[in-house]
Amino acid sequence: MSAKAQTTNAPLIEVALPASDDFTHWRDIARLLVQSGVEPECVLWNEPGGDAGLFANTSQLPDPAPGAPPPRANRKFMQMAQNAILHSDPSRFALLYRLLWRQQSNLQVLDDHADADVRLLEQFDRTVRRDKHKMRAFLRFRAVEDKDTGGEHFVAWFEPDHHIVRANASFFIRRFANMRWSILTPQLSLHWDGTVLREGPAAQREDAPSGDPTEDLWRSYYAAIFNPARLKVGAMLKEMPKRYWKNMPEAELIPELIAGAQHRETQMVLEGEDLRDPAPLTLKETHRAVIECRRCAICELNTNAVIGEGPEDAPLMIVGEQPGDQEDRTGRPFVGPAGQLLDQHLTQAGIERRAAYVTSAVKHFKYVQRGKRRLHQTPHAKEIDMCRWWLEAERSIVKPKLVLALGASAARSLLGKTVSIASARGRPQTLEDGSELWITAHPSYLLRLGDDARAHQAHLFARDLTAVQQRLEELT
Ligand code: URA
Fold first, then answer.
1. What is the pLDDT of residues 352-375, one digit of tens each?
2. Ligand 1 centre and the CA of 437: distance in Å?
3. I need a surface site. Which of 37, 97, 259, 316 has the fewest CB within 10 A?
4. Could you give the CA distance from residue 379 to residue 8 in angstroms, rounded to a whole number?
């Protein structure tokens, strides 16, 4: 109900919000108003740039009724409200206040999915989450020379539908922590120098560069990975609406690729060509592309892409499961507890880690948050299979003679099927590129065992690594 339709005789309270996306400010005032018994029809919420314009002012706020209990709010409501407040509909503040007010007499109000207010909240929440996702997926940085340092500065233009820019800042800081970047939008601009995030004023499209040399690279990469057999134009347009295309270098290719898809698919079947084979990129290019990867839900967890490290022509490739907490923080594989145990065993077996290429089957850390801790979650087979693309890209560049799979996830990624470690360990298999695959346990499996079982497994692990070392000597 809008303030104009006010039905009580109580005075109208005007609230001028300092920003369109400031949930905390809205929440603090909303709590106070509930405690003061101010009914939803008696509040007029104004945001910057709204109808009240420059004249928006906050009325004298009433004091809370003596002894009024703190307002109650359902946890789900608080989560959804933090998204819904970013919606561009000016009625969102009133909707949220109405729902907060109603929870004081019915905390389960959100369970009634037929309720008009609840449906609107759900719609706002969904729309904003989608808009956040679009910004993460379709924003494209373009490299320009930094005027002060002469180094690279990455600049992107993005036009969000809702007030999501600040809310997405931490995602971009984490994902591009070591880059100097600016994101320009019609609402505000964000500038990250590798240490500090600054905010600047709204920008215009012309303020952002329109192309850079790396885009040719990205375009050829995109053309190489475009799989005509998977083309679904409707789904593609839904996921990636045309209006985002103008800021995406690869989008120039889309009409041509769609037009040629049917033909390429037929050719592929006739010639038995497998377009899933990764294009031969460098490791650096692969890393950049992994950063952009959105093939599965793990990529949405705001973590760093951790690809392998080691010589580009290493004869040995060691493949683990996925980065853990410390790998995610440092951007390097096997640096946490499992990595330390692996290092010890490699040294004992006479394998020089520095001479090996060390990587993982899955390139992002999959976890669940428990308080302050991020707990490892084993990736599903489907996620391993999605990420297999990147491991194949690494293998096609490094071309190791011997691949050592640590654990079941790595083995699945390399073989395309699930195998038992107990039956697969200790004997080599030949992969389709002629390299030899050896399978053993993952060091974190050893870390989870009790002392006796660990001693036994450590012995088997050491034996497997020694066999790998001997075979490596024969092969090199
Ligand atoms: N476990 C892995 O499989 N990979 C890492 O990088 C770290 C732990």
1. 999 999 999 999 999 998 888 999
2. 18
3. 259
4. 56
